[in-house]
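TA notes, week 10

Several of you asked for a full example with nothing omitted. So below is the full record: structure tokens for the whole chain, then the designed sequence directly under it. When grading your own attempts, check the secondary structure regions first.
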């Protein structure tokens, strides 16, 4: 009896201590709006029970957070989720200042937990460009890698990019006329070849031998990241899941391949005109903490990020062009005026495809590949626009919600590339368009992505008529925790354009 009483007493003390601890944390947020929290014995959970209930019916956490914004109409509020407090923000000036100050508001540690290791399998490591919250190592690496995306480098890869595009066009032409294809698969393969040959100078033999394995493994990695965030049991080392075993085998093969490529490059010295691989090697010489595995981490970041987001954008662009025939023919007319059909694009030609770039940017607005980004306050008494931000606060920037806010975009659900015309884009509010984020942690490869999308889409539009085989499908449902990709792919019919 004494033992039972002791256990009950200790449980009560523990419960009270936990509540006092959480009360002390939450009172730092009392100056912010917050959804009501239950006053019963589950007070310490905050809105976690309601959040989990909504999450079961939603594609991802970003969508759930947007629901709270829709329900309460606050542009800035805090969600207490047990010991975590997430600040959801739609105030543009606030967002701009947070993204600009990477030392006070580095990346949320959650990125590191998801992207660095999954069940002991190394993905992007602790110091990868994507997973590092914002250490001095990251800053030194980022500065060393920036020249790898300079305009002079992008100009130099256009001939190689043309070879990749020619190969894609030949594959598409080899299919029977009126074949319905999931262009997501084609764009994945093309994006892999573009980043591998143009960025890493990977030989055609290596790509043909290992390309299919790499292209198939990328979705497995993203799925494992999603399961890590969505299912707490997936993280436990003692739980058996088929996905864990598949991930381990697949990632180890890719990492070994990349390591061999890097070691061979190091042994043979860096080229006179450095590619992305050369900049990765150079950037990792900034610290004694870094090893060959850290080089592999950054290579993998560029490979996966360069493939996934660009492939999604190109596939979605083709869908909207198939849906909007007037815009499709306007794009084709622009392309025909710049380059003869069947000819390769030159550097000056790419910059002339102004309307096509407007179309791509509108696709990035309406269906951004990344729905949201997070930052974490690491300083005491940080102030943004007169608002005190407690140390440890997680700040959620909802890219998708910003891109569809009628205060910033007229008729936001309508596909309208003219929003990005020379005159109209002057009216776009700063930080209302964030497909590549902003500030020091903005996407380093954004210009590479736009260049690739313009070159691939322009050739497809010039060589094929695009048709939606399912006219009743007028919109693409996208979902995902890491990237937001079309749930059922992008099914299109590519009909060879008749020669006039």
């Amino acid at each position: 009896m004494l033992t039972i009483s002791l256990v009950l007493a200790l449980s009560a003390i523990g419960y009270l201590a936990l509540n006092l601890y959480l009360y002390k944390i939450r009172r730092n947020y009392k100056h912010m709006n917050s959804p009501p929290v239950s006053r019963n014995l589950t007070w310490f959970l905050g809105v976690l029970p309601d959040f989990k209930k909504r999450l079961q019916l939603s594609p991802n956490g970003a969508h759930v957070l947007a629901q709270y914004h829709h329900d309460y109409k606050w542009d800035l509020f805090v969600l207490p989720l047990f010991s975590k407090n997430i600040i959801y923000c739609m105030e543009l000036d606030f967002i701009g200042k947070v993204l600009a100050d990477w030392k006070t508001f580095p990346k949320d540690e959650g990125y590191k937990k998801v992207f660095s290791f999954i069940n002991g399998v190394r993905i992007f490591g602790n110091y990868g460009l994507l997973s590092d919250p914002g250490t001095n190592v990251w800053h030194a690496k980022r500065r060393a890698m920036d020249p790898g995306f300079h305009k002079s480098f992008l100009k130099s890869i256009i001939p190689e990019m043309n070879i990749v595009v020619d190969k894609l066009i030949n594959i598409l032409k080899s299919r029977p006329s009126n074949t319905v294809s999931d262009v997501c698969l084609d764009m994945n393969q093309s994006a892999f070849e573009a980043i591998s040959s143009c960025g890493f100078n990977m030989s055609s033999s290596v790509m043909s031998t290992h390309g299919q394995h790499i292209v198939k493994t990328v979705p497995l990695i993203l799925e494992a990241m999603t399961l890590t965030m969505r299912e707490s049991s997936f993280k436990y080392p003692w739980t058996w899941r088929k996905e864990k075993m598949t991930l381990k085998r697949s990632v180890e093969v890719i990492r070994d391949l990349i390591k061999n490529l890097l070691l061979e490059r190091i042994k043979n010295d860096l080229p006179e005109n450095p590619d992305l691989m050369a900049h990765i090697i150079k950037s990792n010489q900034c610290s004694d903490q870094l090893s060959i595995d850290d080089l592999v981490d950054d290579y993998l970041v560029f490979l996966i990020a360069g493939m996934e987001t660009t492939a999604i954008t190109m596939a979605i662009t083709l869908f909207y062009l198939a849906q909007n025939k007037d815009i499709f023919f306007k794009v084709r007319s622009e392309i025909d005026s710049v380059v003869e059909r069947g000819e390769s694009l030159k550097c000056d030609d790419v910059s002339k495809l102004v309307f096509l770039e407007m179309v791509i940017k509108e696709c990035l607005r309406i269906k951004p590949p990344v729905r949201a980004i997070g930052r974490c306050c690491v300083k005491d008494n940080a102030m943004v626009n007169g608002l005190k931000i407690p140390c440890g606060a997680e700040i959620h920037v909802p890219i998708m919600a910003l891109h569809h806010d009628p205060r910033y975009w007229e008729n936001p659900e309508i596909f309208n590339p003219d929003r990005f015309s020379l005159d109209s884009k002057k009216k776009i509010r700063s930080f209302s368009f964030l497909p590549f984020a902003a500030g020091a942690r903005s996407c380093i490869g954004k210009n590479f992505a736009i260049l690739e999308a313009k070159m691939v889409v322009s050739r497809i539009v010039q060589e094929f008529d695009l048709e939606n085989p399912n006219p009743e499908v007028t919109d693409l449902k996208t979902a995902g925790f890491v990237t937001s990709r079309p749930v059922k792919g992008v099914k299109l019919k590519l009909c060879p354009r008749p020669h006039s």
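The CA atoms of residues 48 and 81 lie 5 Å apart. Use that as a sanity check on your answer.
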